[in-house]
Amino acid sequence: MSPPDLDEVLSRLRELDRRNSGSIASVLDTGSVAIDLGARCAIVGDCEIPLRRREFQILKHLIAHAGRAVAAEALCQCVYGWDEDLGSNALYVHIHNLRRKLPPDTIITVRGVGFMVKTR
C-alpha cells in the first residue's frame, strides 16, 4: 500500500471544511463587528464593508476565536496554508488594512502572541 498523495489529502480536508462551514450560522457576530459568510463581507452597524479574500479569512478566523489571542503563525497557516510562499510582513499588511476598514480597537495586538478580536 502506497502512502496517500499529500495534495489529495489537503484537497479532501478543504472540501470537508467547506461542507462543515455550510452547517454553521451564516453570520458570525462579536457585538461590535460581524461577518456574513455568504456575502464574504464585514458588517458594522448597518454598513456592509467589502473585504478582500485574505482579509475575510483572517477576520473569520479571529472572530471564530473571539476573546482569545490567536498566534500570528496560526493565522498564517489558516490563510496561506503550508504550500504558499509568504512574504515576511504579508499578514501584518492584511491586519493593517483590516484595521483601517473596521472600527478602532476591533483587532488588538497581543504582544508576543498575535492578535485578538474583543467580544462586546
Structural write-up:
With 120 residues, the chain is α+β, with helices and mostly antiparallel strands. Helix content is 41%, strand content 20%. The strands form 2 sheets. The protein has a 4-stranded antiparallel β-sheet, with helices on one face. A 3-stranded antiparallel β-sheet has the order 5-7-6. β1 and β2 form a beta hairpin. α2 crosses α3 and α2 packs across α4.
Draw up the topology in text.
Blueprint: H1 6-21, E1 27-29, E2 34-36, E3 41-44, E4 47-50, H2 53-64, E5 70-71, H3 72-80, H4 90-101, E6 107-110, E7 114-117
Characterize this entry briefly:
The protein is of the alpha+beta class and 120 residues long. The protein has helices at 6-21, 53-64, 72-80, 90-101, and strands at 27-29, 34-36, 41-44, 47-50, 70-71, 107-110, 114-117.
